[in-house]
Design goal:
By secondary structure, the protein is α+β, with helices and mostly antiparallel strands. Helix content is 29%, strand content 28%. Strand 2 and strand 3 form a beta hairpin. Helix 2 runs antiparallel to helix 4. The longest helix has 19 residues. The chain is elongated, with a radius of gyration of 18 Å. The model has no long low-confidence stretch (mean pLDDT 94).
């Protein structure tokens, strides 16, 4: 069982101890997508969504979520989230989301970036579900990370 860092010798869940790790600058970027109807896309482009500014709400929700990741994921470390950029763009099929999270800490921010995009997507759904019950989320995925022992990684 020791190959799995979040399991102890007996196979029980544990939080990995990162006390001895070096503090390094780290970043992670995740992307997601919210697919919605052409009617919703048209309303997004003209600002005619009854609940208000969908992209602004998505950005704020994603930023707030990145900072609260350890409250949602029980084995995630409490780290300093030093920067979050959340971009939301209306495209022909819906809304493309991209979050980049940065820190100088002992562990990475991949989960924070994924959480930011996920919650931003949920905020979009909440804002447009009255106009489009078939709205859907996905895919959500990590596209890049940097820093730490494993260094740079980019989705191929």
């Amino acid at each position: 069982m020791t190959d799995f860092t979040h399991l102890d010798q007996a196979g029980r869940a544990r939080m990995v101890d990162v006390t001895g790790k070096e503090v390094t600058v780290r970043a992670a970027t995740a992307e997601g997508f919210v697919r919605c109807s052409p009617e919703v896309v048209a309303r997004l482009r003209t600002g005619a969504v009854p609940k208000g500014d969908v992209l602004a709400v998505a950005r704020i929700a994603g930023i707030a979520a990145a900072k609260r990741t350890p409250e949602l994921l029980p084995l995630a470390h409490v780290i300093g989230v030093h920067g979050v950029e959340l971009d939301a763009e209306v495209v022909d099929e819906g809304i493309a989301l991209r979050a980049t999270v940065r820190t100088a800490d002992r562990t990475g921010v991949e989960m924070e970036a994924l959480t930011a995009v996920s919650v931003a997507a949920l905020a979009v759904v909440d804002m447009v579900k009255g106009l489009d019950r078939a709205v859907e989320i996905g895919p959500i995925r990590l596209i890049a990370k940097s820093g730490g022992r494993s260094g740079e990684w980019r989705r191929g």
